[in-house]
Amino acid sequence: MSNVSYYTAEGLKKLKEELNHLRDVERPRASQAIADARDKGDLSENAEYDAAKEAQGHLELKIAKLEETLANARLIDESQLDTSKVLVLSTVKLRNKQNGMEMTYTLVAESEADLKAGKISVTSPIGKGLLGKKVGETAEIKVPNGTLKLEILEISRK
After folding, report:
1. Three-state SS across 102-143?
2. What is the pTM of this model?
3. Which helix (H) or strand (E) holds 153?
4. Are 148 and 87 within one domain?
5. Do the beta carbons of residue 140 and residue 148 sit within 8 Å?
6. Cα dihedral 110, 122, 7, 120 sign
7. pLDDT tens-digit series, residues 99-125
8. Fewer CB in a 10 Å sphere around the end CB: N or C, the chain?
């Protein structure tokens, strides 16, 4: 079953760059490491050759996963997003009802999440809890240490 993910233009560009780097730089490097190890003699007792083959296997798996992700990636047209409710790529200003603290997050695809940059995944507990909510509503989100009550103050697009 394909798993469609939605990306910003920036996120999609980063995925493509990573895939190209793995194909164009890392794959030839792995092949060269195998060739170098093969030249060192008897393959049955060559740990360096085994390690190089295993590293190549991991690299090929990573490339295959990235290719699958890109095949199922969809670009989000940010101009068509509705700002009346929380959706992917919404920037949401929240107030924690327990402590009064205000915070702002942008909901993004899982692979683009970066808490330091204020980007949280739509698949995270908080992201899931905010989806579909409107300004003035309170999202009650179950987290490991209880229930988080977040009031939605503002919804916008960057």
Report:
1. EEEEEEECHHHCEHHHCEEECCCHHHHHHCCCECCCEEEEEE
2. 0.59
3. strand 146-156
4. yes
5. yes
6. negative
7. 999 999 998 888 788 889 899 988 888
8. N
